[in-house]
């Protein structure tokens, strides 16, 4: 009995409990890189997503200080599956924090209801690039990833 357990235990560890398909059973991916610019300037810190037709598995990347990106599907910078992809580029600005009120114990404290200022209204913060690029159906960006091709895609975003 102990001998069977010793033989089966390593086999069970190798098989695991499911999860991601082993690399040999996945669709192959191919290196993909590119650069994103807007008004001829690099778009820094943007999320770039390639969504393949048929909805298999998307690939993701983030632009660096030169607007360059490399895609990841299963592992870091491994690329994207072959096929036609719609592309989204998302970059949002961070809203400035609201001004802090004086502490309740302070002589400068005034309850928000009686402060003599205009009311503050929360509004969405405009991104650094047009919103249309964050939605696959409106971005207008497409790419075809091919086995054996360079797969380097420059995207110049416009208004």
Quick rundown:
It is built from 2 helices and 10 strands, in the order αββββββββαββ.
Textual characterization of the structure:
The chain is α+β, with helices and mostly antiparallel strands. The protein is 11% helix and 28% strand. It has helices at 2-15, 136-139, and strands at 29-30, 33-38, 41-42, 47-52, 59-62, 68-70, 80-81, 83-90, 141-145, 152-157. The strands form 3 sheets. Strands 2, 3, 6 and 10 form a 4-stranded mixed beta sheet that branches. A 4-stranded antiparallel beta sheet has the order 5-4-8-9. The longest helix has 14 residues, at 2-15. The N and C termini lie far apart (71 Å). Mean pLDDT is 79; it is low at 1-19 and 120-125.
Supply the number of helical segments: 2
* Element order: H for helix, E for strand: HEEEEEEEEHEE
Biggest beta-sheet profile: 4 strands, mixed
CATH class of the domain at 21-95 and 123-151: Mainly Beta
Mean pLDDT value: 79
| Terminal Cα span | 71 Å
Tell me what the CATH architecture of the domain at 21-95 and 123-151 is. Answer: Sandwich
Helix content: 10-25%
Structural class of the secondary elements?
alpha+beta
Strand content is 25-35%
Count all strands and give the number.
Answer: 10
CATH topology of the domain at 21-95 and 123-151: Immunoglobulin-like
Quick one: overall form? elongated
Radius of gyration: 25 Å
Pick out its properties:
disordered N terminus, 4-stranded antiparallel β-sheet, alpha+beta, 10 strands, 4-stranded mixed β-sheet, elongated, 159 residues, Immunoglobulin-like
Topology:
Layout: H1 2-15, E1 29-30, E2 33-38, E3 41-42, E4 47-52, E5 59-62, E6 68-70, E7 80-81, E8 83-90, H2 136-139, E9 141-145, E10 152-157
């Amino acid at each position: 009995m102990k001998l069977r357990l010793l033989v089966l235990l390593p086999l069970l560890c190798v098989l695991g409990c499911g999860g991601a398909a082993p690399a040999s059973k996945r669709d192959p991916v191919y290196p993909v890189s590119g650069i994103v610019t807007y008004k001829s300037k690099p778009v820094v810190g943007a999320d770039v997503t390639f969504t393949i037709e048929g909805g298999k598995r998307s690939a993701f990347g983030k632009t660096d200080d030169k607007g360059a990106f490399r895609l990841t599907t299963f592992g870091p910078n491994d690329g994207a599956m072959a096929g036609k992809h719609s592309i989204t580029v998302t970059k949002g600005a961070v809203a400035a924090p609201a001004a802090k009120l004086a502490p309740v114990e302070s002589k400068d404290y005034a309850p928000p209801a009686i402060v003599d200022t205009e009311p503050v209204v929360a509004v969405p913060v405009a991104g650094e690039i047009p919103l249309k690029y964050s939605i696959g159906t409106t971005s207008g960006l497409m790419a075809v990833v091919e086995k054996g091709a360079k797969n380097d895609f420059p995207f110049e975003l416009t208004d």
